[in-house]
Fold this sequence. Notes:
Oligomer: single chain
Radius of gyration: 26 Å
Order of helices and strands: EEHEEEEEEEEEEE
Number of domains: 2
Amino acid sequence: xxxxxxxxxxxxxxxxxxxxxxxxxxxxxxxxxxxxxxxxxxxxxxxxxxxxxxxxxxxxxxxxxxxxxxxxxxxxxxxxxxxxxxxxxxxxxxxxxxxxxxxxxxxxxxxxxxxxxxxxxxxxxxxxxxxxxxxxxxxxxxxxxxxxxxxxxxxxxxxxxxxxxxxxxxxxxxxxxxxxxxx
Length: 183
């Protein structure tokens, strides 16, 4: 059977790819795959390291987190990383979203009038700030209320230093938690 190969009519049994051509195709495929992975990591995901104790016992100092920033909608219970212009980013849990009313009383968190079940914490929750915000508090549109899981050692929305968090300041939500624990 005759086929056209590089503009020449040849017998199909005679067509053999050049080894250099095979090598070039392999290198081009690998380089393309590496470039695609790099673009995905740069534009869709971020890797951050937990710094501090505010999310203990669920996240430890030094744990690595893989974030995605392809969403601007956040759900209660998600862990997010918040940018701060004057300091290091914060890793916190979303407790309330826009329209929710949050209250702190008797060592517990109340969301929309109902006691919030928080199996991820092992201590009571109190208002730690002498000033604003005042509770109960309704979260405005475009904002979230966040707290650390280690409620006794967390700079979060209970403090005027953080307050309600504009969703534009959220770097991303956690997709994957890579523990730094020595095994």
